[in-house]
């Protein structure tokens, strides 16, 4: 049966006070943090450096740019156009001859439809040279995971997690391959759809956590070694590195509901960005070896009505003096993509596995198993679906 809106509204009315109290408390805490941010921005440079003089791993974030040229802690972009054509002309001026490359992935998890556990992982990539001839490259790569790959029988690790790990590994490997094939590519930008700081891996046991860190480290090391700019793009970020910094410096109350994007959003217009910060996140970066203190981030306003996106950038990119140029490339990609980088959006379209792909995979698998005289059978439910479709 479908949902009954009347019942949901009735329950929401009954629990209105709970939502209201939460909202009031969150707004009050957010105001405290915004006031602290204003105080931090208003500090004299020497005073700010003095309060930031603490050992690595204790602050959450460390600003790498002076606030002297900001407006309320924000670098204004001043990008205003009268129409879409004007904005696209700006894009052409910035992106012509610049190659952007992005990778994304999709998967079919093992399920009860097959008599033995099998999974499919697919990654897709999109390379756009932004040339007048419109040349681009879009392709995919797949992997079939066997019961051995899935480590069936290992009671300590869910099978689905192995699939997610393989997808992550394939995405990272493809990006590293591209860097190796294009060393020193100055007019090139790679997008990684996610965070370069694998905090999400803290929830896993040590071996899985280290797996994600090792994959990310390969990315960071390749980017610096081959001098190919890399951006970790997080469209909706709940990171709280600057929030932690303010809490530490101003002894503020805990703020589990506040994230950095909330702090900055009110003062930002489209295209604006925050100063560049060094990520000084506790614990996870301790395992990043020489890149423990070489991941930076900034928040970039990419839409008019949502919070800014978080961009994570290897420190060497900032040290090269090309930060502003590369951020303009990101802005241009966002314009083409209508609020989201076009390269990532297109890579996602290339990688995604639809329902009919799932049916095709199972049919190929069954036919192959029959030829090889392997004891693999589809469930009656899956056979019925395949016949209907």
Can you walk through the features of this model?
The protein has 389 residues and is α+β, with helices and mostly antiparallel strands. The protein has 2 domains: 23-351, no CATH class; 355-388, no CATH class. 44% of the residues lie in helices and 15% in strands. It is built from 13 helices and 9 strands. A hairpin with an 8-residue loop joins β8 (295-300) and β9 (309-314). The protein is globular and about 75 Å long. The mean pLDDT is 89.
Helix content: 40-55%
Q: Compute the CA-based radius of gyration.
A: 24 Å
- Stretches where pLDDT is under 50 for at least 5 consecutive residues are none
Strand tally is 9
Estimate what percentage of residues fall within beta strands: 15-25%
Number of helices: 13
User: Could you state the order of secondary-structure elements as H and E?
Assistant: HHHEHEEEHEHEHHEEEHHHHH
Q: How do the strands of the widest beta sheet line up side by side?
A: 1-7-8-9-6-5-2-3-4
Distance between the termini: 24 Å
Silhouette:
globular
Average residue-wise pLDDT: 89
Taken together, the total number of domains comes to 2
Which secondary-structure class do the elements indicate? alpha+beta
Q: What's the story with the biggest beta sheet?
A: 9 strands, mixed
């Amino acid at each position: 049966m479908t949902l009954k809106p009347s019942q949901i509204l009735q329950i929401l009315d009954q629990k209105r006070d709970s939502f209201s109290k939460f909202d009031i408390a969150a707004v009050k805490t957010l105001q405290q943090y915004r006031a602290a941010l204003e105080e931090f921005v208003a500090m004299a440079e020497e005073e700010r450096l003095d309060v930031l003089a603490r050992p690595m791993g204790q602050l959450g974030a460390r600003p790498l740019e002076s606030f002297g040229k900001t407006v309320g802690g924000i670098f204004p972009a001043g990008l205003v156009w009268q129409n879409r054509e004007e904005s696209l002309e700006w894009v052409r001026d910035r992106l012509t001859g610049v190659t952007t490359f992005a990778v994304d992935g999709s998967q079919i998890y093992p399920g009860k439809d097959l008599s033995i556990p099998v999974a499919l992982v697919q990654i897709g990539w999109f390379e756009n040279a932004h040339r007048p001839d419109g040349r681009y490259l879009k392709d995919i790569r797949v992997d079939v995971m066997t019961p051995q790959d899935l480590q069936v029988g290992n009671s300590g690790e869910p099978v689905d997690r192995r699939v997610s790990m393989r997808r992550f590994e394939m995405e990272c490997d493809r990006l590293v391959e591209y860097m190796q094939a294009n060393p020193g590519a100055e007019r090139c930008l790679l997008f990684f759809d996610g965070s370069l700081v694998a905090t999400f891996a803290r929830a896993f046991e040590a071996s899985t956590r280290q797996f994600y860190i090792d994959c990310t480290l390969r990315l960071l090391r390749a980017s610096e070694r081959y001098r190919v700019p890399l951006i970790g793009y997080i469209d909706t970020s709940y990171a709280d590195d600057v929030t932690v910094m303010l809490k530490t410096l101003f002894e503020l109350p805990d703020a589990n509901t506040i994230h950095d994007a909330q702090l900055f959003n009110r003062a930002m217009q489209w295209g604006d960005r925050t100063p560049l910060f060094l990520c000084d996140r506790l614990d996870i970066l301790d395992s990043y070896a020489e890149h423990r203190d070489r991941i930076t981030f900034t928040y970039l306003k990419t839409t008019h009505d949502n919070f800014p996106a978080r961009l994570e950038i290897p420190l060497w990119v900032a040290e090269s003096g090309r930060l502003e140029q590369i951020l303009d490339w990101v802005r241009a990609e966002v314009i083409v993509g209508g609020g989201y980088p076009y390269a990532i959006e297109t890579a996602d379209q290339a990688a995604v596995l639809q329902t009919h792909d799932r049916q095709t995979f199972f049919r190929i698998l069954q036919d192959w198993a029959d030829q090889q005289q392997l004891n693999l059978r589809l469930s009656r439910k899956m056979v019925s679906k395949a016949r209907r479709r």
